[in-house]
Specification:
single chain; 248 residues; Rossmann fold; seven-stranded parallel β-sheet; 40% helix; globular
Length: 248
């Protein structure tokens, strides 16, 4: 006969009978202490990134290497961002992330890497400023750092991780959890199908988003258009200084 855990909370069964429930094979006693690791990671991130100034977060695949179309396009965009006075934040790894850090590094701009251990990313790329090379254990902490200090988001082609970052930002913007800033998707061939699916399936057919939600982002192939969109959005704020995306 299965014994009831005396420490388990009471659960309602509707008819007064004990309902069959799944149970954990084990519960790690130190789970509560994990919060101290999470807090430490937040503290390290805020202590470091509070000093970087306004930045643009660049998302994209780790698998698009130097010499590929979108790698070189990312270098161009990051270089122009540095010339406009913005730093660049990436995930710190290879591919598009390396290109973003490289572009801003070429103009002596602020180059930030938010690293995390992944099976196919062995180490950070060499274009990150040592003072702004942050190591993360938790994805959710890393996402906060990506969002809080970004005055815009540039999203290059990528896989699940890039899509996760894009939809995280879109959700936070749609729900007004963060301040609205430019979200620019670079690569019309890559992104147009996703936008069309959002418009036809989500907005028109299923009504799971508002038709205007697809206006939360731009799609372009032109590096100068990326810069124009970002500068135009911040034209009024630039005179008085920029602020972080949300208060804590």
């Amino acid at each position: 006969m299965e014994q009831k855990d005396k420490n388990a909370p009471e659960t309602g069964g509707g008819n007064g009978q004990l309902q069959k429930r799944k149970h954990w094979s084990n519960v790690r006693g130190e789970n509560a202490w994990t919060m101290f690791k999470v807090m430490a990671e937040f503290v390290d991130g805020f202590e470091m990134l509070n000093h970087i100034g306004p930045c643009v977060s660049i998302f994209g695949s780790a698998r698009l290497k130097e010499g590929s179309e979108y790698y070189e396009l990312t270098v161009q965009i990051a270089t122009r961002l540095a010339e406009e006075g913005f730093g660049v934040i990436t995930g710190g790894g290879p591919g598009i992330m390396e290109a973003g850090n490289k572009g801003v590094w070429l103009r002596n701009g602020t180059s930030v890497g938010l690293n995390i251990d992944l099976p196919f990313e062995n180490s950070h790329n060499p274009y990150i400023a040592p003072a702004f090379n942050l190591k993360h254990r938790y994805f959710f902490v890393r996402k906060v750092m990506f969002v809080r200090y970004a005055q815009a988001f540039v999203v290059m082609p990528g896989g699940f991780g890039t899509l996760d970052e894009l939809f995280e930002v879109l959700t936070l913007t749609q729900t007004k959890t963060i301040s609205r800033v430019p979200i620019v998707l670079v690569g019309t061939v890559f992104w147009s199908g996703l936008r069309d699916w959002m418009q036809t399936m989500l907005a028109e057919h299923m009504h799971t988003i508002h038709p205007e939600d697809t206006n939360l982002f731009h799609i372009t192939d032109d590096p100068e258009e990326v810069i124009r969109i970002i500068n135009a959005f911040h034209a009024d704020a630039a005179e008085h200084g920029l602020s972080t995306n949300f208060d804590l």
